[in-house]
Design brief:
The chain is an alpha+beta fold. Helix content is 28%, strand content 22%. The protein has a four-stranded antiparallel beta sheet, with no helix packed on it. A two-stranded parallel ribbon has the order 1-2.
Length: 217
């Protein structure tokens, strides 16, 4: 979405664990070490790198403008499948795509009085949008260094790091220095692309088997 339409001013999201770490209260049975916001999620790191603000909705009702269309679409899909006796997931996907096409490209919105995609295209053409053109933040030269999973490791006395039980040689980095590791999974090839950065330079890249990587989102 970002590469196609650009950077939004802000994201309005719920407290799903992909977006935000939320910890409950302590109890007599369990004492929490990390509190809410003490963990930086992978998604949050990417938003901060891109300069996109994030606002968290504290209840489903707070996201009414998002929840209502989803509920409406869900109701339409269920009723259509029931009326047409559709039970296979592939057929249900076809119904979903048809409903999305009708909602976005054909149906006049009850609030704006316009078709959503036509309204959005006109806003973009008139520069009446808060979307900004996407450009790679310095010093990166590839989208793989933005849209990726991130970890940090310290280079040991043997110029190596350990990454999910993989021992990796890291050249041209002083001992005991931290390196930033950018990981791009490729499920089709069953590999994890590794790009290691230090001092604003990519110092090493390699690919490893995807099995064994368990990155905390």
């Amino acid at each position: 979405m970002i590469e196609t339409f650009g950077l939004p001013l802000r994201y309005y999201v719920d407290s799903l664990r992909v977006f935000r770490f939320v910890q409950g209260r302590d109890s007599v049975w369990r004492k929490h070490v990390l509190q809410t916001e003490d963990v930086d999620t992978q998604w949050g790191k990417m938003m901060r790198l891109l300069g996109v603000d994030v606002v968290f909705a504290l209840s489903p009702q707070a996201k009414g403008k998002v929840e209502r269309p989803y509920r409406w679409l869900q109701d339409r899909i269920v009723r259509t499948c029931a009326l047409e006796r559709i039970s296979q997931i592939e057929e249900v996907r076809e119904v979903l795509h048809e409903e999305l096409d009708r909602y976005d490209d054909h149906q006049v919105h009850s609030t704006t009085g316009e078709i959503p995609n036509i309204r959005f295209a006109r806003a973009m053409a008139d520069s009446n949008s808060l979307f900004r053109p996407f450009s790679l933040p310095k010093p990166y030269t590839s989208p793989k260094d933005v849209f990726c999973l991130r970890e940090r490791r310290m280079v040991n006395a043997y110029c190596r790091i350990s990454l999910f039980n993989n021992d990796i040689q890291v050249p041209n980095v002083p001992l005991r220095e931290d390196v930033d590791i950018h990981m791009v999974p490729d499920p089709k090839k069953n590999i994890m692309q590794i790009r290691i950065w230090w001092d604003d330079k990519m110092v090493h890249s390699l690919s490893l088997q995807l099995r064994g990587f368990r990155v905390h989102l």
